[in-house]
Design goal:
The structure holds 2 protein chains of 2 kinds.
Chain A lengths: L2 H32 L7 H8 L2 H21 L4 H7 L2 H13 L6 H18 L14
Chain B lengths: L1 H26 L7 H12 L3 H22 L2 H7 L2 H12 L7 H17 L3
Helix pairs in contact in B: 1-3, 1-5, 5-6
Classes of the chains: A mainly alpha, B mainly alpha.
């Protein structure tokens, strides 16, 4: 496995995870400021999406989807899916640090299991299938 | 109804990732990240039917998940979707023919179990 591919994969994993965690965070923050979405008309829904924080969250989630697609152009699905689960851990830490949420023992244990699983999967090779021959 | 929605979420997520991975592997590794080159990638992907199909399937999965959240607690929805990690590893092994060795199975299992625990109060 080339060092270049490993570095490129790490960089993309970081982008995928940050875009997902921050995208969800800003979207839920923006939506919660507006109150319940139930029973909104189409026009009001569009207004919520145009809220600057919601729009910022949605933009980050679009970046999340595109960077994950790029990552899957060279990395295994069975590598990408577990490794990007680090987002759960980051969400728990962000909640603890910025929102003062209490995290129970069971939750910390869950976090440890996730980190252990990621460490195992992260030590396997990034790609196990042969690249397709270019088709002209 | 709850379990039906969970099944729909897990199935559609796995199917969407199968389609997305197949489409992206067919396109080939992206090397050039300059805007012009990315524009060409986008136009190639739009014509590779796997990608639009993946996006449509993802939309169904997202809609099913939102509906699930509207009738069930988050503490039910999150652990139920931990099954995703197992479903996706099965898809990777049997449909995408990736090599899932013992390390990867164990890792995916630990992540799924960790996600289950996260939902405990």
């Amino acid at each position: 496995m080339s060092d270049h591919l490993r570095l490129k994969t790490r960089v993309f994993v970081v982008i995928v995870v940050l875009a997902n965690v921050l995208g969800n965070f800003f979207m839920s923050w923006g939506v919660k400021r507006r109150g319940s979405l139930l029973g909104l008309s189409m026009l009001e829904y569009i207004r919520v999406i145009l809220d600057p924080w919601v729009a910022f969250g949605v933009t980050l989630l679009i970046i999340w989807m595109l960077s994950r697609m790029a990552l899957l152009s060279w990395a295994d699905l069975s590598y990408v899916v577990p490794v990007t689960a680090i987002g759960y851990v980051l969400t728990a830490v962000l909640g603890r640090v910025f929102l003062g949420e209490q995290i129970s023992g069971a939750r910390w244990a869950g976090t440890l299991f996730i980190v252990a699983g990621i460490a195992l999967v992260g030590s396997t090779s990034i790609r196990t299938t042969a690249p397709e021959a270019p088709r002209e | 109804m709850k379990w039906l929605l969970v099944a729909l979420v897990v199935l559609c997520t796995a199917l969407a990732d199968y389609l997305q991975t197949t489409g992206m592997k067919r396109h080939g590794e992206i090397h050039d990240f300059r805007p012009g080159a990315l524009g060409r990638v986008a136009s190639a992907l739009a014509r590779n039917w796997y990608i639009p199909a993946a996006v449509a399937t993802m939309a169904v999965s997202f809609y099913a998940f939102i509906t699930l959240l509207s009738i069930a607690d988050l503490s039910f929805a999150v652990p139920a979707t931990a099954a995703n990690y197992i479903a996706e590893t099965l898809v990777a092994r049997y449909l995408l023919k990736e090599t899932v060795n013992a390390k990867r199975w164990t890792g995916a299992g630990l992540v799924a179990f960790g996600v289950l625990l996260l939902a405990l109060p």
